[in-house]
Amino acid sequence: MPPHEPASAPSPRTPAEILFDLNQDCGPDLEQAVRAAQQRGREIIPQLIQAIDEATDSALQGEVTEGNAHFIALVLLTELRAIEALPAIIRSMTLPEGGSYDLYDDAVTEIFSRTLAALADDRVDLIDSVLSCRTTDLFARWEGATALLMLVRDGSLAKEDVIERLRKHLRQAIADRDSDLATIAATDLATLRAPAARGEIEEALQRNLIDLEITSADDLLKQLAAEELPLADLLGHFHPSGIADAMDELRKWHLFAEEADDDREFEMF
Known about the structure:
Layout: H1 15-22, H2 28-40, H3 45-60, H4 69-80, H5 86-93, H6 99-104, H7 107-110, H8 112-119, H9 124-132, H10 138-153, H11 159-176, H12 179-191, H13 198-206, H14 217-225, H15 231-235, H16 246-250
Helix pairs in contact: 1-2, 3-4, 3-5, 4-8, 8-10, 9-10, 10-12, 11-12, 11-13, 12-14, 13-14
């Protein structure tokens, strides 16, 4: 009788197979797919970008995107600091008429700024494009501005550079009567203690372009006149840039809840 031959180990799943698995229902298999994607590292980046592009294309055609591969891809690409993915991510996060929120739900406010800050590299102009696009979801525009502040905190951008960028956005908002952008830019200029922007902020207030349900004239002007503080004090309350471990991040979401009433931090479909 021939000796028993041990079964050979299963072949590693290809990037395309892993992407397919990422789009399945939650559970142990989905966690294994995330871990497999992490092990593949940069090799799987094209497939993750593809998942986001396909979801964006479907949204633009008015179709409902099935599954969560695009959301998981966003988290993985942020962990991998895949700077080549930034244009696709921004295209997906700046869909008109709330399309980005339909795709990503709370990830717009919980992850997008961290993604932008991690992947911006030398393409800060792409973050500016998020702020300046009037059809972009309001929350996504706020997160674009937050990413600029995070880059200041991280030492990746000079405070003076971001102040000038925000003043430019504020001047454009005044010219275009863009109340959302005016409120965002004025609020963040006040956060940065930018007295040089006082004239633009006062003009925006006079033109009723600042949303006084979000801030007030007194608060803005008091912050501008306040004493200078260390960046750690001004900006230390923001999330860290990037994502250290995609699986740890995903466990905060209901997507990975084992029971329907499991108390997770964030909703996701």
